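Hey, sorry to bother you again with one of my protein questions. I've been staring at a protein lately and its backbone has me curious. I owe you a coffee for this, so here goes:
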Amino acid sequence: MSAARLRMRRLTPADRSALVAYLERDRANNLFHLSNMEQLGFEHPDLRYYGVFAGDEWRGELMLIRSNAGVVWDAPEAIPCLVERLIQEGAGLISGRRDLVEPLLDYLPAGRLDHVVLTHYATVTAPGLRPWPACGERLATLADVEALSDLYAENALHRSAPTHSEQRRRVEQTLTTGGLITLVERDGRVVSAARTSAVGAGMAMIGAVFTLPAYRRRGFARACTGLLSRALLDQSLEPYLNYDPLDPGASRAYRTLGYEDIGEWMLAFLRPA
C-alpha cells in the first residue's frame, strides 16, 4: 500500500458507529477516544476526530480535544497523515500506547518535540481492589470546587501549569459531566485529591492525583485513589491510571491497592511552531 492511496477526513456523527467499532478492538488503550465521545458528545466544539482510510478500510484515527491528541493506526503508511494533521491542528501533547506514539516522533519537524514522559498503564478489578487505611477521604461535591481549585493551582508537576481559573473550569466540568473527585482535608483545607479525567464506554481514567508537599507520606493519595476506584467499580466502570514507574511512592501506592500493569503509556509534549 502506498501513502498516496490513503486519505484523511474529519469524521462526522454519521461515522460514529463505525468509529466505535474500530476503537473497541483495543478499548482499554482507546479509553480517551471512546469516553470523550460519550461524555462530551461527538459535536462538542473542543472535540475533533479524523479518520485515515484506504478506500473504505480504516487505517488510523486521530482524536483531538483542544490541543491534546490521541492516535490509533494499523499501518505505518498512516503515520505521515496523522503527523501532518497534528501539526496543522497545533497539538501540544500526544498521548497513548507507547508503540503507537513513539513511531510518530521521527516524523515531527525538527525542534518540535519538547520532552517525553513514559509511564505504566494499570487497572484494577473489583475483586482485586485491596483495602487501605482510612484517612477521612470523601467524594467531592460542587461545594468543594474552590478548595479543589486552590489545591490544583499549587500543583507544579507540569511545565505549563494551568491558571487558577482554568483549574476551576476543569474541576467544575469533571463534577458536572459524570466525573468523580475524591479528597482529604486537613487544617481547614483540601490537601490531597484524585479525580477522573475521562469517563465513558464503561471505563474511567484516574488522573490529577496530587498531595501538597507538607502532607505527603501519610497515605492520603492512596486513600483518595482507593475511594475513587471503589466508587467507579460500584458504578460498573473499569478504573485505569498511569504512573511513573521511577516514582517509588506512586508505584507502591497503586500496587498495594491492587492495580496491575497492562502496558506502557507515552506522553510526548510538543513545542509551539
Summary: Helices lie at 16-23, 31-40, 79-88, 98-105, 145-153, 164-176, 220-234, 248-257.
